[in-house]
């Protein structure tokens, strides 16, 4: 087993990885920016290194600073988490060139799957179905128009080097293709430094089905069943489930086998996800995410597998500990992403200070969070505050448990998307499993400003007031024994930060 790991990330995923490493006896090193001095991941790590100001480009995205922190602390390995540098082939290569273990796939695999047109070509060669479209980037808007007329409208223009909805335009008229191509190329160039764009047929109401996979250095590849991630806004997921309520046994087997073929085509090592679009009984390859996913807890719930533990074991040179036939699928799990956004105001980002935090508990409830009372929520990073996950023997029971857990969750001091999530888990189409990536567009009533959330808002305000009064009456506790922070290599003297219990995350 590797002896020490630097976690090149922040927030809830950094804390999740640190906890997983600690259970295996691995020494942990956190990195942090000026904005994250009091973040829970800083408190929980064995050591923590300040690597720059709040701007991600000068801290979490600075490869040289991250590697210098690893070198100075004697880290043996680097875990990238997700986001930031996680899918940067040049980072994986730089880690390996520095003599460190990269907890993830090889730079070559990341590079191949990061180029969307190269990924499509490889998948087609491996017999994985892909959406009809171009196999290489297009050179101009006029060329894109010709392809669109051949593929058939509507089409979607996509950045070859990116994801997450950036550099993407849906076009339904031929005379709009050229302008959309130019706009997508500009956005792709700004987001990824590469303006390459390709075209594929646009599926109007698909379901988003993805398969968790795992490979090791001995040629073994397994899948850990599928997740449904159809409820999205602007291609960003809000709610994820495992397994999909759509699939029967044969479809589940088919999509799992397709994901394994995809992984073998690129000699995949570590945790990864193959994403598919499903429509009218057909699956089409969308992309491969060469990292741990935000929604990995639902897979952990239904399989009983600790994916972070598997990551560390495979990175340490061990084989996958289970064969495909041994991986169970038990019950149903749902995850709600809790973000600092105002869903009834166009999802505008929200800022503030967390004044009160009440985390749900009870059977089958898990909270993976990266905040605590006193956390300053700014605009520097992704708005994800935490993830609320529930498990039960069946989907209906898992939804009831999620409704209860969302009702218990209280975050005072910053607006979140929780009120919208509470509405979704009571909406009839969601309850019936009638889902698609167009779900939110087709349910505008979910965004109507109403009074149904007023009682919860009042409860939040009351809880915050009571907490404020309690804290004013009780002396501040001392920093717990062993919770030593290191800032610029010196023991920190900042106020104690009450760590948040993240369930079994």
Pick out the low-confidence regions. Answer: 477-505
Question: Shape, please?
Answer: globular
Taking strands numbered 1, 2, ... along the chain, how are they ordered across the largest sheet? 13-12-9-10-11-14-21-19
The count of DSSP E runs of length 2 or more, i.e. the number of strands, is 24
Reported for the largest beta sheet, the result is: 8 strands, antiparallel
Counting copies of identical and different chains, the oligomeric state is single chain
> In whole angstroms, how far apart are the ends?
21 Å
Rg over CA atoms: 23 Å
Mean pLDDT: 90
> What is the count of DSSP helices, taking H or I runs of 4+ residues?
15
Structural class: alpha+beta
| Helix content bin | 25-40%
Strand percent estimate: 15-25%
What does this structure look like?
- By secondary structure, this protein is of the alpha+beta class.
- Helices cover 32% and strands 24% of the residues.
- It has an eight-stranded antiparallel beta sheet. Strands 3-2-1-4-5 form a five-stranded parallel beta sheet. Strands 7-6-8 form a three-stranded antiparallel beta sheet, covered by helices on one side.
- The longest helix has 20 residues.
- The two termini are 21 Å apart.
- The C terminus is likely disordered.
Topology, element by element:
Blueprint (H helix, E strand, L loop, with lengths): L3 E4 L3 H13 L3 E7 L6 H5 L2 E6 L10 H11 L3 E3 L9 H9 L3 E2 L4 H8 L1 H10 L15 H11 L3 E5 L9 E3 L5 H16 L4 E5 L5 E9 L5 E13 L2 E7 L6 H17 L4 E10 L2 E8 L6 H8 L3 H9 L16 E8 L1 E2 L5 E2 L2 E2 L2 E3 L6 E5 L6 E2 L6 E9 L2 H14 L1 E3 L5 H7 L3 H5 L21 H20 L12 E2 L2 E2 L14
Parallel strand pairs: 1-2, 1-4, 2-3, 4-5
Antiparallel strand pairs: 6-7, 6-8, 9-10, 9-12, 10-11, 11-14, 12-13, 14-21, 15-16, 17-20, 18-22, 19-21, 23-24
Helix pairs in contact: 4-5, 7-8
């Amino acid at each position: 087993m590797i002896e020490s790991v630097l976690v090149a990330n922040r927030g809830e995923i950094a804390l999740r990885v640190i906890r997983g490493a600690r259970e295996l006896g691995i020494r942990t090193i956190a990195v942090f920016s000026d904005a994250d001095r009091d973040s829970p991941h800083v408190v929980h790590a064995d050591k923590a290194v300040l690597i720059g100001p709040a701007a991600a480009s000068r801290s979490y995205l600075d490869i040289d600073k991250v590697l210098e922190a690893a070198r100075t602390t004697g880290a043996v390995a680097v875990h990238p988490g997700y986001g930031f540098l996680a899918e940067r082939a040049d980072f994986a290569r730089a880690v390996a060139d520095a003599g460190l273990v990269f907890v993830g796939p090889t730079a070559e695999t990341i590079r191949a799957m990061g180029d969307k047109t190269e990924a499509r070509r490889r998948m087609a060669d491996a017999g994985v179905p892909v959406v009809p479209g171009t196999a290489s980037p297009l050179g101009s808007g006029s060329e894109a128009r010709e392809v669109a007329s051949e593929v058939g409208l509507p089409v979607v223009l996509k950045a070859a080097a990116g994801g997450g909805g950036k550099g993407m335009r849906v076009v339904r008229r031929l005379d709009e293709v050229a302008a959309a191509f130019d706009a997508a190329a500009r956005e792709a160039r700004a987001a990824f430094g590469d303006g390459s764009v390709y075209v594929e047929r646009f599926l109007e109401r698909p379901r988003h089905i993805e398969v968790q996979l795992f490979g090791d250095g001995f040629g073994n590849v397994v899948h850990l069943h599928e997740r449904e991630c159809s409820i999205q806004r602007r291609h960003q997921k809000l709610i994820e489930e495992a397994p999909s309520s759509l699939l029967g046994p044969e479809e589940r087997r088919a999509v799992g086998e397709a994901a394994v073929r995809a992984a073998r085509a690129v000699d995949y090592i570590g945790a990864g996800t193959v994403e598919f679009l499903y429509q009218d009984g057909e699956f089409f390859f969308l992309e491969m995410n060469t990292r741990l996913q935000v929604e990995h807890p639902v897979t952990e719930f239904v399989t009983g597998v600790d994916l972070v533990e598997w990551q560390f074991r495979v990175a340490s040179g061990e084989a996958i500990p289970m064969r495909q036939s041994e991986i169970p699928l038990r019950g149903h799990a749902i995850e709600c992403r809790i973000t600092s956004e105002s869903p009834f105001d166009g999802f505008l980002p929200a800022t503030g200070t967390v004044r009160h935090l009440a985390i749900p508990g009870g059977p089958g409830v898990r909270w993976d969070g990266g905040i605590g009372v006193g956390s300053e929520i700014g605009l520097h990073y992704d708005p994800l505050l935490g993830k609320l996950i529930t498990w039960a023997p069946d989907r209906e029971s898992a939804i009831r448990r999620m409704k209860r857990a969302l009702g218990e969750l209280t975050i005072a001091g910053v607006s979140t998307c929780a009120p919208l999530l509470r509405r979704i888990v009571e909406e009839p189409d969601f309850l019936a499993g009638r889902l698609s990536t167009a779900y939110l567009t087709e349910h505008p009533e979910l965004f109507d400003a109403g009074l149904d959330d007023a009682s919860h808002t009042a409860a939040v305000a009351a809880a915050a007031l009571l907490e404020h009064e309690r804290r004013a009456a009780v002396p501040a506790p001392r920093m717990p024994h062993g919770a030593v922070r290191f800032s610029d290599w010196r023991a920190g003297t900042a106020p104690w930060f009450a760590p948040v219990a993240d369930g079994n995350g």
